[in-house]
Structure formats: C-alpha cells, structure tokens
User: Fold this.
Amino acid sequence: MSQTTSTLESMKTLLFILWAAAAFIPAPAWAMAKMPQLPSSGSVSEREQKPLTLEDCYQLALKQSEMLAMKQADIEKTWADFLAASGDLIGDGRFIMTDSFIEPQGGSSSSDSGATANAFRTERREKKFVISQPLFQGLREVAAVAGAGHLRKQREGEAQRARQVLFTEVVEAFYAVLTTEHDLEITQTILALYEERLQDLAMREKIGKSRASEAINARSRMKAVEADAADMRGVLAFQRRLLEFLTGIALENHFLKETDGENLPDPDDLDNYLSSAGRRADVRAAYHASRVGFQNVV
Assistant:
C-alpha cells in the first residue's frame, strides 16, 4: 500500500513540473500575431491609367503590322536582286597570280642573259585578270537591271499605300471606341434620371397624386434603355478588342484621349482632289508595276 502511495506522489510531482514548465516558457510571437493582409489587386479605375492618343495608336500599329514588315523586306530585297542581276550581267572576274618553281638544269649558267636567262630561270611569277561570261546569258539580267528602278518604286508605293490603309483602320477603330463610350455615358445618365423619376412617382403614388400605371410605364422605358446600354457594352468590348489587335497592347490601363483638331487644315475642293488622284501611292505603284511587266521582270 505504501508503494502505491509513493508512486502516485511521484506522478503528481512530475505533472506539477510539466505544468510549471508550460506556464513559464514564453510562447512564440508568431502564434499571437495577425496574418498579413493580402495585397489588393484593385479595379482598373483605381489604378493610374495612361492617356493614349490617335498618334500613339498609329505608331503602335506600325510596329505591330506584319504586312508592313513584309513590304519593307520586299523593298530591301529589291536592292539585293539588283546586285545579283548586275553580277550575272557583268560576269565572274578573277585575278590569278601563279608562282612556279623549277629545278635548275645542269647546263645553265648564271652569266647568261636575255631570252636564254629567262628560259632557264628557276622562279617564275604569272599574273592575269580573267573575266568569264557564258554565251547567250545575261539578257534576262539586262531587263532586270533596266526595270530595277520601277520595281523598287512599285514596292515603295505599295508599302506607302499599306501604311495609309492601316492609318484609316486605326482612325475608324479609335473613334468608334470614343463614340461608343460617349454614347454609353449618355445612356447611363438617362438611366440615373429614370431612377430618380421612379422614386418621385413612388412618393407621388403614396400621397395619391400619381397612378400606378405611370410608374409601370416609366419602368418599362427604363428597361428598354437598359437593354440599349447592354448592347452598347457588347459593341464597345468588340471595338476595344479590334483596337487592341491593331496596336498590340491591352487597353485596360489606358484611356483614349482625343487630340485638339484646331490645327487641322480645311478640306480642299473636289476638283483639286480629282486632279491629284494620279499621285496616289497605289496609282503610282500600279504604273511602275506596268513598267516592270513591260521589261519582262518576273
């Protein structure tokens, strides 16, 4: 019995020691601290947006366009074709220098001079310039060299016309986004006015100065305007994606800024435009293409 009592006393002593150790040992600070707040992404309107003008969009579209890059490569290839045709026309030129070493013969003498001395020389050097041109070759190259100027001007005109068409596409996409955004703002203002109108009709209906049909009629008109606003948002999303495709950048962190048009020149008369139609880039490119075809350059 005394042995059992001593065992219980020792267990109580051990539990007391463990409890005291747990009470006096300091807990780690991180267990009592709060979790750090996650960084908020923020909406697009909360982040700083950068202005994007029409000129900025056009410069971005010039860098993004693969067609213009291909046109520029064609212009550079024209000069390479001209050099290749010129080389084929002129032919292959080579400068050859030959050194010959001959073993001395037994009957030769160092005192010989003139033709005899040259005949018995042990070292000889021969220099010659050789131009080779195959027969009946070079007619195509002659035509290529003659039409190289027209070919280059044709490709330059096509590249200029491609830049003009790209500018037209950027202008249409840019102002389509601006117009739709402006119309959507007006529609949102109309919806806000309808909300105020419905609240006013509800108050007037409570005091008996308005009928329920007036509120129903106003609400039906507001729903029609909401449908128009939803349609505008869909059109605006498509137009923004088109402008992003042309410029190669996302418009989430940018807003379109319309430049001042006071410095733009006034439109000219129609007769002046008609008289200058022959100086258009595509017309000049077609003319030079006809000259290239006349020179039989393929």
In short: The CA atoms of residues 17 and 23 lie 10 Å apart. The chain is about 65% helix and 10% strand. The longest helix spans residues 148-206. Residues 28-46 have pLDDT under 50 and may be disordered.
